Amino acid sequence: MKKPLDQLAPCAALVDIARDFHARGWMPGTAGNLSIRVRDPGPVAADKSPEDTFWITASGLPKGRLEATDFVRVGVRDGAVVERFDVSARPSAESAIHQVIYRHFAEAMACLHVHTVDACLACADVPLSVLEMPLPALEMIKGLGVWQQNPLVTLPLFENTLDVASIAAAIDWRFKGMLPMVPALMVRGHGVTVWGATVQEAYNRVEAVEFLMSYLARAQARK
Ligand SMILES: [Zn+2]
């Protein structure tokens, strides 16, 4: 077996995942973004409070051809770049969404976002007034940490817009009022974002969510 993702250096693990997801058509072209949190070791001076950072895919690069140097490290709190291998590299345009996830979920160590046809199809007919999309009560729902018989579980739905900051603000606002039932969210016509306490857990959860999205898309096509 290949080394578990959690045993790889952060950017090496994200390169592995990007190639894998690209090969499945989940990160076509430059679409999607992946990140891993780096814990702040703690204050080094009385006037400095700890601030976590995260490595995220640099903007505009083809996901099937990433290397471990194609990442930028930014602050969870302010999104400011603190480390990069190429001075011209910019963090992913959707970095603000990762910031919101890391701020709301202290246990989240990785956040993965993909663009898939099935996820877009799965919510295509869900009315705009519906903010929580019911997920099918399939065995695979256990992959999202739900261990109940016939669970009633929903996935938070958000509107897509060209202004990523406003999507991030909508997620932030909604999660301040009510945390999601599963470690995932969906932006309509765009794709899912999934997080986990380890990068391997986040990876496994993306597969579970996409399984459920594929099921919903195919179930609707049968009607
Ligand atoms: Zn996206």
General form: globular
Are any ligands bound, and if so which? zinc ion
Assembly context of the chains: single chain
Q: How many E-type strands?
A: 9
- What is the CATH-assigned architecture? 3-Layer(aba) Sandwich
Which runs of at least 5 residues are low in confidence (pLDDT < 50)? none
Structure write-up:
The protein has 223 residues and is α+β, with helices and mostly antiparallel strands. The chain has one domain: Class II aldolase/adducin N-terminal domain (L-fuculose-1-phosphate Aldolase, 3-Layer(aba) Sandwich), CATH 3.40.225.10. Helices cover 30% and strands 20% of the residues. The chain contains five helices and nine strands; from the N terminus they run αββββαβαββαββα. The protein has a nine-stranded mixed sheet, with helices on both faces. A hairpin with a 5-residue loop joins strand 3 and strand 4. Helix 2 runs parallel beside helix 4. The longest helix has 24 residues. The chain is globular and about 60 Å long. It starts with 9 loop residues before the first helix and ends with a helix. The relative contact order is 0.16. The model has no long low-confidence stretch (mean pLDDT 94). Bound molecules: zinc ion (ZN). The site of zinc ion has 6 residues, from loops. Zinc ion binds next to loops.
